[in-house]
Write a structure and sequence with these properties.
Blueprint: H1 3-18, E1 22-31, E2 36-41, E3 44-45, E4 53-54, E5 58-62, E6 66-69, E7 75-78, E8 87-92, E9 119-124
Antiparallel strand pairs: 1-2, 1-8, 2-5, 3-4, 6-7, 8-9
């Protein structure tokens, strides 16, 4: 492999591994009333020339609720229940969720993209 090919291969790999899309995480604590959790991501981060490190715990991660109509009854919203130690799948929003969670249309110029601080729990493994 030429030096240029190796450089661009490493460059591409560095960019792709820095984009957070989805990963498993462990529930450290869960607030059933607020439907938020403190989680520990289970993938490590690695910088070129350094040893892999654990990602920090993330606090206040919302867990998605579900709406169902059961047997033709009224529509009901169901909150998930998680226990300490449960392993969940977490997705990371393309942009900051701050305004969008309230139903606002969000301007695309945000500096926060694919941040671990915009995590959402989508379900249990």
């Amino acid at each position: 492999m030429s030096e240029a090919t190796e450089f661009f291969s490493n460059f591409r790999r560095g960019i792709l591994t820095s984009i957070n899309t989805a990963m498993p995480a462990k529930i450290l604590s869960y607030d059933e009333v607020k439907c938020t959790a403190k989680i520990q991501p289970l993938f490590k981060a690695k910088e070129e020339g350094k040893e892999p490190v654990n990602l920090p715990p993330i606090e206040g991660v919302p867990a998605l609720k579900q709406k169902y109509r059961v047997n033709g009854g009224a529509v009901q919203t169901y909150k998930p229940v998680y226990n300490v130690g449960d392993v969940v799948l977490v997705v990371f929003s393309q942009r900051a969720l701050d305004g969008a969670k309230k139903g606002n249309i969000v301007y695309p110029g945000t500096n926060r993209m694919f941040s671990i601080h915009d995590a959402v729990i989508v379900g249990l493994f």
